[in-house]
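My convention is simple: the sequence line spells out the residues, with the fold written below as integer tokens. I include a record here:
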Amino acid sequence: MAAPAAMKAPARRGVLLLVLAVACMLVASWAMGLVWFVRDARRPPRMPPPCDGAVALTGGQGRIEASLQLMAQHRARQLLISGVDPHATLGDFLTRTPRLLPLGVWLHTTLGRQATSTLGNADETAQWVRTHGIHSLIVVTAGYHIRRAMMEIARAVPGVTLYPFAVQPPALVHPRRLATWRLLVVEYDKWLLACVDTARWTRPVHGLIHHDDTRPVAHAATP
């Protein structure tokens, strides 16, 4: 009986070494992916070609202002600001925009009040795209959010050509701060989960999980 027991010990050790090796490979892959994600998030935005529309996803500084400037530069004919406070009006944005914009920009801007998450942004954008006959769309959001936002919107509006416009928020100006790294790690993990479409697997309970209204209030909805 001693011989079989002696044979089990090396086998058990081999399994543990295999598990450890796989775990190390996964951690290394995750870390290398994070490095790529951070570099990608900090990449300066490229000016998109003229498109039918643009969508700005609220939740961070500079996004709405950047989308309005794209409209003023005739890069988009229609603009959706997705995920604003239910009581916000265009007047709230008009009074807090530091630069005077042509009246046509405001006349072709729609406020989306339903979205409270990235998945909600995608659904709200899809409805707006169908209503306005949009075939090409600029997606405006933070650099650390652009990959996930593009992925979710692409799933919601198949056939629409998407162009990213990544805003560089203050957090990315100081990438070595602990708070910035925490934000980047969380957003990286969310993007990994989005790659396997976990949000739509859990759609039946998505409203329960995201029951808190995280939209900015009217006075804070602007960049």
